[in-house]
Amino acid sequence: MIAGRLFLVPCVLSGGSKPADVLPAPVLEQVRRIDSFVVENAKSARAFLSACAHPRPIREIAMSELNEHTPEAAVGALLDPAMRGQDLGLLSEAGVPAVADPGARLVAAAHAAGIRVVPLVGPSSILLALMASGLEGQRFRFHGYLPVPAEARRARLAQIERESAQSDETQVFIETPYRNDAMLADILQACRDDTRLAIAAGLTGTQEKIRMDAIAAWRERAVSLGKSPAVFLLLAASRGRR
């Protein structure tokens, strides 16, 4: 039997976005042809598939969850529909799957099993933020989440600022939305005046906000980010740019 394919399905980044506004028509057509999904969160996945106008009743779509709590030993079995010849979709809670997302484990298992992996075009908050930042786009590093305790987070920020200055490299990281303002406060405390900071929040949504400025300017104009999903980007001044 020929194995099915694993389609990596992008999801909307903002709750206020419609799939048709951010996903190409061929991607939506492919999503509607898939009847089995591995998802990070079943509730949000059902809402997304409904908004995609999936032709099958949502209750009839096969859905298994894969998240940070899924044991490693259970990941391989999630590929069973593909092993039986069905196409399978991998769906993150927001954005593209398998990037800063537990779905990467399923993709690795698919490669090991000889299942074809097919990435579909859609919004990535990391790349959209980098595009809009005005910072170095040829050399960049994504750190995911930084430490939660304030002292450890400020120490890590100082470290990645030094690395940015040494390598002329944009440093990209994210935070749980309810800690956005605490993260911004720590950035403004830990980083130098001439380091440039970009923040992209609510990307592709109706409340989208993107700003890039020097740390000194951020300190002068206090802002509250609220709980909108945000991407933070730092580029420290190197000797060549001072």
Main attributes of the structure:
20% strand; 35% helix; five-stranded mixed beta sheet; five-stranded parallel beta sheet; 10 helices; 242 residues; alpha/beta; single chain; Methyltransferase, Cobalt-precorrin-4 Transmethylase, Domain 2; Cobalt-precorrin-4 Transmethylase, domain 1; 2 domains
CATH C-level class of the largest domain is Alpha Beta
CATH fold annotation of the largest domain? Cobalt-precorrin-4 Transmethylase, domain 1
Largest sheet entry: 5 strands, parallel
State the secondary-structure class.
Answer: alpha/beta
Give the domain tally.
Answer: 2
SSE string, helix = H, strand = E? EHHEHEHHEHEHEHEHEEHE
Low-confidence stretches: none
Count of alpha/pi helices: 10
Taking all residues together, what is the mean pLDDT? Answer: 93
Strand order of the largest sheet: 3-2-4-1-5
Q: Concise description?
A:
This protein starts with 5 loop residues before the first strand and ends in a 7-residue tail after the last strand. It has 242 residues and is α/β, with parallel strands linked by helices. It is 35% helix and 20% strand.
Question: What is the element layout, followed by pairings?
Answer:
Elements: E1 6-9, H1 19-22, H2 25-33, E2 36-39, H3 42-51, E3 62-65, H4 72-75, H5 80-83, E4 88-91, H6 104-112, E5 117-119, H7 125-133, E6 140-145, H8 150-167, E7 170-174, H9 180-190, E8 196-201, E9 209-214, H10 215-220, E10 230-235
Helix pairs in contact: 8-9
